[in-house]
Amino acid sequence: MPNQKILYITTEMYPYQEDTNLAAVVNKMALKMHQEGNDVRVFMPRFGQISERKFQLHEVIRLSGMNIIINDLDQPLIIKVASLPGERLQVYFIDNEEYFKRKQYYFDDEGVAFEDNDERAIFFARGVIETIKKLNWVPDVIHLNGWMSSFVPIYLKTYYKSDTYFKDAKIVLSLYNEKDAALAGNVGEKLQFDNISDLEALKKPSFESFVIESMNYVDEVVKGDEFLNGDLDKGFNETATSKSEYLDVDSISKLY
């Protein structure tokens, strides 16, 4: 079914990241839907490892310049854009010096998780939502990939619940076996600042607990990896949300 507006929100995508299933799957899905005549946009963080020169990223001045308040601090939102190499498929990058300039993704060189991973996820989620609204582009399908993207449906169904902009969009969540880590113990206070509370994930906040939580806020849950680990598999099996086993790229279009 071409002519759908499909938004991919992801933490990884080939060729900006290589050697992960998540990055490869998102690339294949986005390209397939684009080539079938859909209006596809991709949003992801502009991690420091992504070369602006190599991939020809440039700032979109009309979309940049907003401030997002995280934990009572104003953080400037910078939006960069590039076309997927060799394709006319636009990829938007959420950037901020404080959160995304560092070369590592979620862990320092000693393997210790960054203390502000929670703030980075909140900034990313709100940055995507606000930028989509500023684009005046209303997606039919929002497909989430990667743990940071799990904050998006939580925000849409709580903080933005009275906003009708996304009311008709269907939300799909793909699950992947990502390396887990604890989030800051005071993440609840930061979410409370946006009037978000009573989340099960806050009892033991982690990358994975928020992914499991977000299953309650989407229309469809899909396995992004064929076999899921431990608690993620348990969450998938127990969720009351409509769900699909692992789907190949061709089956994804039928789901949409």
UniProtKB/TrEMBL annotation:
Its EC number is 2.4.1.21. It comes from Chryseobacterium terrae. This is starch synthase. It catalyses: [(1->4)-alpha-D-glucosyl](n) + ADP-alpha-D-glucose = [(1->4)-alpha-D-glucosyl](n+1) + ADP + H(+). InterPro entries: Starch_synth_cat_dom (IPR013534). It holds the Pfam family Glyco_transf_5. Keywords: Glycosyltransferase, Transferase. Residues 5-194 form the Starch synthase catalytic domain.
